[in-house]
Write a structure and sequence with these properties.
Layout (H helix, E strand, L loop, with lengths): L1 H27 L14 H8 L10 H29 L6 H4 L5 H14 L8 H10 L7
Length: about 140
């Protein structure tokens, strides 16, 4: 009889602990949407967060970090596009015009801003689409 009481007490305690943990973790968790990342943000947010100036007219430190994050995300996205392009067409696109030794972060930032400006504001103006439009204009030749 004592063993049954302990088993019942253990299972009910375990049940309530699980309920408590699930409730606590769901309450603090943020939802992750499919495709979450810099590509799901608008170009308007991209330009606004990466061009804030301080009182002296210099680029704000936070904006500089955001700019680096966006550019690094864009490079990763372009690499993924290039791999997918190779799988489909059997050749890579030439990324030297956007990632060569002579290309600086500022050059890439300007290309991203220009690409965002070319998108129709009423239509999808996602940052990911702006990156894809850069990729679509890159030259590529079969091996």
């Amino acid at each position: 009889m004592a063993l049954i009481k302990r088993i019942v007490l253990f299972t009910t305690s375990l049940f309530f602990i699980i309920i408590l943990l699930v409730g606590a973790t769901k309450g603090f968790a943020t939802p992750l949407y499919a495709g979450a990342g810099k590509g799901t943000l608008d170009c308007e947010d991209f330009v606004k967060t990466t061009s804030e100036l301080d009182e002296e007219g210099n680029l704000h430190g936070r904006s500089y970090i955001y700019r680096l994050e966006y550019i690094q995300w864009a490079y990763g996205f372009l690499t993924a596009f290039n791999i997918r392009h190779y799988e489909q067409k059997n050749y890579f696109k030439d990324l030297n015009s956007i990632a060569g030794k002579d290309v600086t972060y500022e050059d890439m930032y300007e290309k991203l801003v220009r690409s965002c400006e070319q998108l129709d504001i009423k239509n999808n103006n996602d940052f990911g689409i702006a990156v894809y439009s850069i990729f679509a204009r890159l030259p590529g030749q079969p091996i």
